[in-house]
Design brief:
Chain lengths: 289, 365, 289
């Protein structure tokens, strides 16, 4: 190995590191900008630029974004809508996950004539553009008296989340040896007992993946939120969009940024804490298909 | 107590017929082995007996009770799987008692049985461990313990030793045999290993393509096979098969560059078959070096044999050569094997030779 | 009775989901499809007029813009995200020391809502105070960046934001794929004297074909469904210059009370997704045989 080669190798690796770090910076930049902008006052924003650090950081924007910013005709900040999202997300995640678990278990280990076809038909639901069901679903919610309600939104998220949750659980359970089911049958266990005593104890990883995936999808949803909620029941994404597009007085970019971060915080925190499960959810669904 | 009658069993998956008209009676307390090549249907038959699959036709009777429609848990059967199928999140104690738990047996009674079973199988020091913390042999025992705990009428074993290394396999084989001698429950055991079959079975049932070829004791299967397939399946190295021309109720073979006529013990059979060509079946242990101590009769022949390949196996040496241009294996003592080459003096004992119809593969009697 | 329940429990468990799927997925698609064949405007009117709405749709200049935008978006988004994702994955696969941290950074954008992304980038690309001002302050006097409010360029802002959000995911897919390559293959190639570049080009990349296809299907799906990002980043503007089909559908259905055309546009979106999905599934299933 002559000196030239050594240089070459080091140069190559240095270039790789440089590019990787460059992109890391690019990916982080918007977050940095959002954060710094949210701590500046309006004067500074107008006179300074995107990358400048706040001279005199203030929490004014945050307080306003949370409690008093205008989201259309109301000026209560994001707080009420934050809690709307919470009220929507929790039941929707729990119900869709539990249903997915039962469905996945039945489809993976208790196959019957047509069960694979059923699975395929259900899988299709992961792919349809929701535009094709928007209007009829609105009619259905209206007929059920659930238009513009949190319950209605929960129902919608559950129905359209089942395809994903079932996919996750079914693929996971397929990987568990069927001989366990046979042994349990011989031991006299029923469908439910086998689920409870054997499969559920093995399911912690997939529960985590599914819950994180559903939480992220539903918290971040905008389409269903904007179509199916009324002015008091909007989730935070809808409220954020309203806030940013309402410019009573002048545009307060700092408030906009603070509001955006507030909306993004829950899923970001979940990602930071349990990120690897999130990735597993993303790649599992895609690679196995 | 644990007798099984399989009457006219048929099983099809869609349009594929996997088992065709199986009729078999298994006596109470018998150790019956189902053997056959991959895909012969032995595991399917096992699953049918257990109730894990539904019958397409026929009936299964256990102790005079028709259980064909019963679910597995109502048949009073226990099974040991090839992969053991131990419940991964439960400790050994719970694994063993799970069946009892499902039948709502009181805790204290479960304890009694657990103690009995775990000391019988010498796993009482492992009760708190999870399956993931056990060795292959230990898992095997726990799987057997789980089956034993339920005191079933019949034990089903589905290739339980396939996942063990060779030495462990021999150990566990002996354990299973001792277990059977001790508790005497009927055992139906599936394997593809003919040594296991020969050593463990009271009777062996040979399956091929979903049909029973022969059912008999190991001795019968080995020495009195009904077809070429059965004869070929049992024995290692396997039986030699050579096509021979018949002349005056003797068989012509060409070996070592010379022609010989072999005397056969079943002259009438040959005559009655009216065949010009038969398939001669003769086991390698009947082809040896010249043994002066053996009493000479008309069935002991001495012929020239060109050895192409030698395979020393320790206790004997297998010598491979040709008769009638077919490959033939002989079993020589290690000392004779050393020197064997072209023109070796081979002793051929045809007293136990078997004849087959070269077209149908069936035994000529 | 109990026996019947036990034997059919798997089917009973799957029943609610099956019903929901039949009604809320397939049933609704049929409903929307039928609606697209009527002359409905504000309310559903079941007067069938054949393909009239589709004709009107294709003659609609706003739809034209939306479809053009979709193609621009699709091609740029997919190509750049693929190349970027692949490159970053290859670099990350080179035994980088801080791989975990870098991966986390590349992926976090997937955890946040498209609304948040749109809001952040709306600020970053702000004509007067965003990148333009930043570049001016850094010395590039006279630098202009007003794409956000330029008719022809607004769509490219959406492309940029979408790539920022999703390329990390593509990277994760490729990284998983690269990691799945048998070590022995790489060793054999090195023994045969392949340089790193040729190793990747001739051996590893061809093995990545299934990942390419999965990524393309998923990215296409994301692109066709893109609604949130447009709403937040440009609102479809200026005017409707950066509209995408999903936004068109929403506007015409819910704002303009033209549900017939809205339904037609939704059906076209569905066909678009199917056009990519069906060949992909077909080739996947064929390979399995």
């Amino acid at each position: 190995m002559n000196k030239f080669n050594l240089l070459n190798i080091n140069f190559g690796r240095a270039a790789i590191y440089f590019i990787l770090f460059l992109f890391a910076f690019i990916y982080l930049a918007p977050l940095y900008v959002m954060f710094t902008t949210s701590l500046k006052d309006i004067e500074e924003i107008r006179s300074g630029n995107l990358m400048a650090l706040p001279i005199d950081p203030t929490l004014y924007a945050w307080k306003k974004a949370w409690a008093s910013a205008c989201t259309g005709s109301e000026c209560k900040g994001l707080a009420p809508y934050f809690w709307n999202s919470v009220r929507i997300v929790f039941p929707a995640v729990i119900i869709s996950t539990i249903l997915g678990a039962f469905n996945g278990y039945a489809l993976a280990k208790w196959k019957f004539k047509g069960s694979e076809f059923l699975f395929g038909a259900l899988l299709f639901g992961c792919f349809i553009p929701f535009q094709v069901i928007l209007l009829p679903m609105a009619k259905l919610l209206g007929a059920l008296g659930l238009a513009n309600t949190v319950t209605g939104l929960v129902l919608v998220h559950v129905i359209y989340g089942i395809a994903f949750t079932t996919l996750f659980f079914r693929n996971y359970y397929v990987g568990i040896p069927t001989e366990l089911v046979k042994a349990a049958k011989l031991d006299g266990a029923s469908f439910l007992k086998i689920f409870r005593h054997i499969f559920i104890p093995l399911s912690t990883p997939i529960f985590v993946v599914t819950i994180i995936w559903q939480f992220t999808q539903i918290w971040n949803d905008f389409l269903f939120g904007v179509v199916y909620s009324g002015s008091g029941t909007q989730p935070i994404t809808v409220a954020l969009n309203n806030l940013v597009n309402t410019s009573v007085g002048g545009k307060e970019y700092n408030v906009d940024m603070a509001a955006a971060i507030i909306a993004a915080l829950p899923t970001l925190i979940v990602y930071i804490i349990a990120g690897k499960y999130f990735v597993r959810g993303l790649t599992a669904g895609a690679v196995k298909g | 107590m644990g007798s099984i009658s399989l009457n006219g069993i048929n099983k099809s998956f869609g349009s594929t017929e996997v088992l065709k008209d199986i009729n078999l009676d298994i006596k109470d307390g018998e150790f019956l082995i189902l053997i056959g090549p991959s895909g012969c249907g032995k595991s399917t038959l096992m699953n049918l007996i257990a109730g894990l699959e539904d019958l397409t036709g026929g009936e299964i009777i256990i102790d005079d009770k028709d259980v064909s429609e019963e679910s597995p848990k109502d048949r009073d059967i226990a099974m040991v799987f090839q992969s053991y199928a131990l419940y991964p999140t439960m400790n050994v104690a719970r694994n063993i008692c799970f069946g009892l738990e499902m039948s709502k047996m009181p805790k204290n009674e479960q304890e009694v049985i657990l103690k009995k079973v775990s000391s019988l199988l010498q796993i009482d020091h492992l009760l708190d461990r999870k399956p993931g913390q056990l060795s292959g042999g230990q898992r095997q025992r726990v799987a057997m313990g789980r089956a034993l705990a339920r005191s079933p009428k019949v034990f089903l074993f589905d290739e339980p030793l396939s996942n063990l290394d060779a030495k462990l396999r021999v150990e566990m084989r002996t354990e299973i045999k001792k277990l059977h001698q001790r508790i005497g429950t009927t055992i139906v055991y599936v394997t593809h290993d003919q040594i296991e079959a020969m050593t463990l079975a009271d009777r062996i049932a040979v399956l091929k393509d979903g049909e029973l070829q022969q059912v008999g004791t190991p001795y019968e299967i080995y020495n009195d096979p009904v077809s070429h397939f059965v004869a070929d399946f049992m024995g290692s190295p396997g039986m030699n098969f050579i096509e021979c021309i018949v002349k005056d109720e003797k068989l012509i073979i060409e070996s070592g560059g010379e022609k010989y006529e072999l005397e056969m013990p079943c002259k009438d059979v040959i005559k009655n078959s009216k065949l010009d060509v038969v398939l001669l079946g003769i086991r390698p242990e009947m082809l040896t070096e010249i043994q002066p101590s053996v009493e000479k009769n008309s069935y002991i022949h001495q012929i020239k044999f060109d050895v192409d390949v030698l395979e020393p196996m320790g206790a004997d040496t297998v010598a491979i050569g040709q008769w009638n241009e077919s490959e033939v294996m002989a079993r020589l003592s290690p000392e004779s094997g050393n020197a064997a080459g072209k023109g070796f003096d081979l002793q051929v004992d045809t007293s136990k030779a078997i004849l087959f119809d070269p077209n149908s593969g069936l035994r000529i009697r | 009775m109990l026996n019947f329940l036990e034997k059919n429990l798997p089917k009973i468990v799957l029943a609610p989901t099956t019903i929901a799927m039949i009604v809320c997925m397939y049933g609704f698609i049929v409903w929307t499809g039928l609606l697209s064949l009527t002359k409905s405007r504000m309310m559903p009117q079941w007067d069938f007029v054949g393909l009239d709405q589709y004709v009107r749709l294709f003659k609609n200049p706003r739809w034209d813009v939306a479809v053009d935008n979709l193609f621009i978006f699709l091609i740029l988004f997919i190509v750049i995200a693929l190349v970027l994702g692949l490159l970053l994955a290859i670099f990350l696969d080179q035994k980088i020391r801080v791989e975990g941290a870098i991966r986390t950074i590349y992926l976090y954008p997937m955890a946040i809502s498209f609304i948040v992304t749109g809001t952040a980038w709306k600020w970053i690309l702000n004509p007067g105070l965003g990148i333009e001002k930043l570049m001016n302050d850094w010395g590039f006097v006279g630098f202009e960046f007003r794409w956000l409010v330029e008719q022809d360029m607004a769509i490219y802002c959406i492309v940029i934001a979408a790539i920022w959000q999703s390329s990390g995911f593509v990277m994760a897919l490729f990284l998983a794929g690269l990691r799945g390559v048998d070590d022995n293959l790489t060793k054999a190639a090195k023994m045969d004297g392949a340089s790193t570049v040729r190793l990747y080009w001739h051996i590893i990349l061809p093995l990545m074909r299934p990942v390419f296809f999965s990524a393309i299907v998923i990215l296409t799906h994301i692109a066709i469904k893109s609604f949130d990002l447009v709403q937040a980043l440009t609102g479809g503007g200026p005017g409707y210059a950066s509209d995408l089909p999903a936004n068109f559908m929403y506007t015409y259905t819910f704002n303009r009370s033209q549900i017939g055309i809205g339904a037609a546009s939704a059906m076209i979106m569905l066909f678009g997704v199917l056009a990519v999905l069906i060949p992909y599934l077909y080739s996947e299933l064929r390979e399995k045989d």
